[in-house]
UniProtKB/TrEMBL annotation:
Family: Belongs to the aldehyde dehydrogenase family.
GO terms assigned for molecular function: aldehyde dehydrogenase (NAD+) activity
The keyword Chaperone belongs to this UniProt entry's keyword annotation: no
InterPro entries recorded: Ald_DH/histidinol_DH (IPR016161), Ald_DH_C (IPR016163), Ald_DH_CS_GLU (IPR029510), Ald_DH_N (IPR016162), Aldehyde_DH_dom (IPR015590)
Organism phylogeny: Eukaryota, Fungi, Dikarya, Ascomycota, Pezizomycotina
Oxidoreductase keyword on record: yes
Name of the featured protein: Aldehyde dehydrogenase domain-containing protein
Location of the active site: 263
Any single GO BP term: carboxylic acid biosynthetic process
Residue ranges occupied by any Aldehyde dehydrogenase domain in the UniProt entry: 25-489
Pathway the protein contributes to: Alcohol metabolism; ethanol degradation; acetate from ethanol: step 2/2
Entry-linked PROSITE patterns: ALDEHYDE_DEHYDR_GLU
This protein's UniProt keywords: NAD, Oxidoreductase
Source species, domain of life: Eukaryota
Amino acid sequence: MEVQLTAPNGKTWSQPLGLFINNEFVKSSNEQKFASINPTTEEEICSVFAATTDDVDSAVAAARKAFKDASWKSLSGTERGALMLKLADLVTQNAEILATIECLDNGKPYSVALTENVPEVANVLRYYAGYADKNFGQVIDVGPAKFAYTVKEPLGVCGQIIPWNYPLDMAAWKLGPALCCGNTVVLKLAEQTPLSMLYVAKLVKEAGFPPGVVNIINGHGREAGAALVQHPHVDKVAFTGSTATGKEIMKMASATMKNITLETGGKSPLVVFDDADVGLAATWSHIGIMSNQGQICTATSRLLVQEDVYDKFVESFKAKVQELSVVGDPFEESTFQGPQVTKAQYERVLGYIQSGKEEGATVMLGGEPAPQKGKGFFVAPTVFTNVKPSMKIFREEIFGPCVAIVSFKTEEEAIELANNTTYGLGAALFTRDLVRAHRVAREIEAGMVWINSSNDSDYRIPFGGVKQSGIGRELGEAGLAAYSNVKSIHVSMTA
Ligand code: NAI
Ligand code: MG
């Protein structure tokens, strides 16, 4: 059920391959597996067991039993928080192994996994551990005839489905609030990046969580994912991924009227006004689209630049990309950008680049594959100018290191362009005019607006979208609302 792996950086670990159900790793019922590929070398790393519908049944049954069991149900919030803190400590202690696995399986730079993604897991767990004994109901004073109060109750079994772009972070964002509120969980990992969270599963057991509280499975979306969403004993579904899959999930979840949280796609604008610090705007524009190989739901993939500073901004941005976006082996210290996560994503991104060329946009930088030693799903950081709002590269989520730059004349036009999308996840704007900054922030249709930065999200601040970018919020105090029911209790005082 485990295999010994060694990464190019010399780290060695025992990699679990099974489905983590009831604190044990088990095979899938028909022993089906799928391979995980290293996107840098295009070679298979190992194969993991893939859950069948029957396995999803077992995982849900384990979670349901654990939800009712005194070993979990009777814990105080303080005790739940202590388990979460223990898990956070174990994650921190295993940081180098987890970062190594993430680099190998996902292709993100090791240094980023070590300094950003692994700490994010510990931070989110600690943040929600702190809430576990501070998240309670109210007494509502309606006069002497009635004593009324509310209690916050866990929802029950939560089915959580995560994508491959941030395997560790996305899992933590979902586990943190769910466990804080006393739920139990079946977490389905993404097929493309199954390995890091299977290692965390070992730590869940080591931290002392009762069996069945946290179940972690791999499986295909249409099989295991769909079975989880449709399962009659699952009370809630939380999903991060594509808008198309999010819509399917909403439909499937409607049969049993499940509570849902969806965090889906984006085509987030970044607006540069003519009074902005252009150098600062260029720096954040680079971070906002080129980080994580451009595979970020909130990536600011449309740069809208006021005409008076257009040339200056474009030059400055181009210089930043050329200087900072070092493409290479993700285990190399100097690498900023590794490979796209899979061949499918690589081809999808190249397909969008092709469509941009065909529709008449100008490729100012990149626009082609960037293999390393003849291998890997690498795409050169790509900047398009002369982009029209009707083009696919302006309208659709590319999810790669590709950005479209468009100029505008007036604030009204900027707002119209920014909102000219079916999405509404993030948005960024650069100006030194305080009043304009807040005025435009309110006009942009998005769940999050960054003023004079981009994508510096924070686990203490709510995260989520409007329009077709999702339903509900994760992170921050707002993230708790998705994981409990408010029960109202009326006590008649006239008896
Ligand atoms: P996807 O949305 O299909 O997959 C995400 C997760 O959903 C995976 O765990 C998958 O197994 C599961 N899933 C797929 N079909 C399902 C179904 N019918 N029922 C239940 N679960 C299901 O995304 P995919 O195909 O990996 O990527 C395609 C595009 O989606 C990307 O190019 C990108 O544009 C977007 N995307 C957005 C993400 C975000 O953070 N908002 C993350 C990943 C992808
Ligand atoms: Mg992989």
